[in-house]
Amino acid sequence: MNSQIIDALPQALLSELGEDVLQSLCTDVDAFGKFSEQWAILTKNALVMLDADGREQHRIALSVIISADAQMYIGAGRLSVKTTDGPVVLAHYSPRLVQKVSAFKNAINAVAKGEQLPHLSEKDLPRTCPTCGRPLDVGTNVCPLCVDKGKVVVRLIRYAKPFRNLMILSILLLLAVTGISLVPPYLTKVIVDKVITPHNFGSMLLILVLSLLLANLLQAVLQAVRGYLGVWLGSRMMGNIRRDIYDALMKLSLSYFDKRQTSQFIGRVNNDAQQMQQFLTDGLIMMTSQVTSLVAIIVMMLRLNWFLAVLAFITTPLILITSISLWPFVRLRWYRLWRTRVRLNVLVGDSLNGIRVVKAFGQEQMEEDRYQEANLRMVDLSTRMDGLWQGVFPLFNFISSFGTVLVWFFGGREVLHGSITLGTLMAFITYLNMFFGPLQWFSQLINWVTNALASAERVFEIIDTIPDVREAADAVPMPLIEGRVEIEGLSFGYERHHPVLKNINLQVEPGEMIGLVGHSGAGKSTFINLLCRFYDPNEGSILLDGTDLRDIRQEDLHSQIGVVLQETFLFDGTVKENIAYAKPDASQYEIMRAAKIANAHSFIMRLTDGYDTRVGERGHRLSGGEKQRIAIARAVLHDPRILILDEATASLDTETERQIQEALARLVKGRTTFAIAHRLSTLRNANRLVVFERGEIVEAGTHEELLSTEGVYYGLVKAQTELSQIRGVGE
Ligand code: ADP
């Protein structure tokens, strides 16, 4: 693929257009969220929108385009352009096209400004499987159709290793069950041939019937033991797999999650682990037993009568051929089903995460429709997939009944001619029926093995991802730091080619309080993210007491940096547990002391269960001001040397505001503090203010110094003062 073209136009459209095409993009959903293809084409003179059949829907001359914008909403995005005549919505797209649309938007913006088309590298475009060319799903490099099965199996089997002895026991039990299951048909033969004869008085009958009962009982007991063992093994292996996935997720850097929808991981932790476990317990063990049972049955049948055995197996190749030829259909359907399932999970996750937005904009119906569409697709696909088996099984049964009919016919004739006994025929027919069990099991084998291996590969992918931010091999232990921060030539971008912070230099003495101010989007939070080492700088460095953050042991770093964030996240648990989050072994006394310093004690005491009151998921039962004070108490207890404050934007009533300010003033004392304040008045205590503008530090100094220079800070203060006057809140 030419790296300059996002989606190459089909030749027919290209010739019809007859213009110099600079860039083209194929979008996938319409304005109502339904799947439908549309082409957006950027030519030297215009932006042209075509429907899938090449009919022109829109044409906007480049000369009227001011800028292009791509916005992601819940579950779908919108590409639009601002023109001199107003905004125009060009197309909608699903999340998987985010990168492509963003590249297309950049192309429009560049061309509209008369610049060169931006160069596109492979990294800018969504990835496809290098083997089969199908698009790879968001968040994974695994193409379920092309995984290296052998490698995955070997690695998967490692999970069974700690349970080797029990696995072997399980296999032995199954073999015993299989062995015992071969006995009853033989006993039947003896009963029919030797006992139920005209001149026999049946003295043996009781013994044989009792043996039959005993064989069945033994089989049932062994099966129950084996079943329990299987469940025991399965739960433990699955527990280990889930633990590994979760540990791996926790270790990954924030940048990993920035690019992915987090909802998909819920499915991975649970479903994929289950698939892997099934492979290990049912798969491996059943495989051994099914193979032995198949071989044993064949041997028994051949021993009873080789001619009938050959007749019975005549149809087997037909069954095998049918399943192999069905395989490509099954594979594709199964793949589609899997993708739809992921999409369903993501849809639920996204809309629940954004439920406030959904409700606030009254978009419940739209979300329901979008979900319903994916849901119906899932219904359709699973009906077709499962329906396929429902059709195939009766077919297999029919084919196998052919063998049975042949055996009845020729076997029956032999019984009539007296060349075999009736008992032999009956035993033979019973074995024959047993033979089809494992056979059907094998015909479905490829299906679920592929399933399980793809799951395993996706899980290993997470486990193998090396976090961007990782501990240096020779990381320096720094259990006690003073709190001097030196930032030298720091540059950083979430996307490398799009810097968000540019050449930042700053020296901060221990115990100093730095206020970070600037317009929204200026890079303040990004700066904080780097200080916490959520990301590593692209250029330059951050030194803490003279040591680069990247060289400090992460544990030491995080134990000495405390954050009070704008949106306090409270975990599902009690108030006490939430305060003691960073120090779970804190005593009740320490927790209360922290709460008192944070001015939180009195409101906590008013809660129904005091410190033991449960706060719901995300702490819904507490007000914004209360949550903030819990966060302050958390930080007090954590007692970090470096403190990061991201002040809440929401206005609080004067009394709460006063209490929080008071608590913060106590908290920051003696600690190096970086505070982002949205209300500038709250930065009164700061030693210095640093003003960010488009990723650069443009001013630094005290409140008075900055006011006197009448620069960016002056503008911000003025705007806020005017705003508060309009609101009549007067600061
Ligand atoms: P501020 O805190 O000053 O409002 P931010 O640091 O949040 O600014 O954002 C600076 C720029 O970085 C913005 O253009 C924003 O869109 C971008 N940005 C922030 N977070 C991310 C992210 N996780 N991935 C990509 N871009 C981001």
UniProtKB/TrEMBL annotation:
Residues in ABC transporter domain copies: 485-719
Tell me the Gene3D superfamilies matching this sequence. Answer: ABC transporter type 1, transmembrane domain (1.20.1560.10), P-loop containing nucleotide triphosphate hydrolases (3.40.50.300)
Question: What is one Pfam family matched by this protein?
Answer: ABC_membrane
Disulfide bond as UniProt keyword: no
GO MF terms held by the record: ATP binding
Signal sequence region: none
Listed transmembrane segments: 166-187, 207-233, 284-302, 308-330, 387-410, 416-436
Q: Which CDD domains match?
A: ABC_6TM_exporter_like
- Coiled coil located at which positions? none
Q: How does it sit in the membrane?
A: Multi-pass membrane protein
Q: Which keywords are on file for this protein? A: ATP-binding, Membrane, Nucleotide-binding, Transmembrane, Transmembrane helix
Compartments, as annotated in UniProt: Cell membrane
What is this protein called in UniProt? ABC transporter ATP-binding protein
